[in-house]
Anhydro-N-acetylmuramic acid kinase (Saccharopolyspora ipomoeae), 391 residues
Amino acid sequence: MRWWRVVGLLSGTSMDGIDVVAAEMALDGEAILLRPLGDTTLDYPADLREQLRDALPPGDVDAATLCRLDTHVGQAFADAARLGVELAGGEADFIASLGQTLYHWVEGDRALGTLQIGQPSWIAEATGLPVISDLRTRDVAASGHGAPLAGVLDALWLGGAETQVAVNIGGIANITVVGGPEPLAYDTGPGNALIDLAAHQRTGRAQDTDGALAASGTPDEDLLKLLLDEPYYALPAPKSTGKEHFNAAHLDRALTELGRPIDDGDLLATLTELTAATVADACRAEGAHRVVVSGGGVHNPVLLAALRRRLDVPVLVSNDLGMPADSKEALLTALLGFLTWHGLPGNTPGTTGAAGPRILGSITPGRTALRLPEPATTPPRRLIVRSAATN
């Protein structure tokens, strides 16, 4: 049994910076063993962060701007990869990158395309290591949504007889349902996207740190009702969404329809309640016996309290079960890369809607010739998380 050292990189829909994780992984029969080695976040430079946010719809991006953004994000990911190699003790076997999603093209119930920027060649040049990237497009080409890909990790990690729902609250919130005939996953709607947007518009802050603004107000029931009338919430799974949909124009329409002013605290309280309500509704509809939450949303006590208030089942943070909440998405990236490296599918068709299992991504060679291991012949059925000190 060989242990592989993997660096996982991604920047989520919040576009704050790049999550970095280093981990050791091994195949042991039907199990994947995972030992986290460390994690960190590399913030985007302020000007790059603003350029990325300006590029989101309804922004208008020409080819020159897209080329520059792709290059600058790739260079930032290269810096993040160096940090990941340091976390791995100075040596790694390969790097997996989910890049920065700039546009997710969905019409009706179909995903027609998806664009992640951050050229992997910058990472390979900076580290000399192979880079597995472009991990969503093959799933979309196979009639899937390319998101959420967390279903493959959650199904291996939480699989069992009892119905559990894993919730990730980033810019967009998504759930994975395990314990049924097959895993199910989908985006429930905004996680922090509208909360961060309103915090920035009203106060100039990038986010509502610790839910302080929401805690100062009271949810406005009229505005909440308007927001909950959004048709996306009633669409059947599989489904995916992004800031192409839940953006400033979306919020402005609801505020215009409200027809009266709303103060900062009440607006943030309402948007926080919206995220809790839509996530809780999805968990309840899927018959969850237990809910396990990860992502940046776990640091918002107002959001967690609202979610617990709306559910009558245990709501845990993934740290309680040994999975780091802050780095879970980066560990997912590492896992996806590890599966591709071993010739194994990285999607779970029941979660993305793809026509079948697919080996995901493209591989950019490092400084030397590419040498892949023999493809694995036993599909993994479990993910076992161990501490770094465990042999």
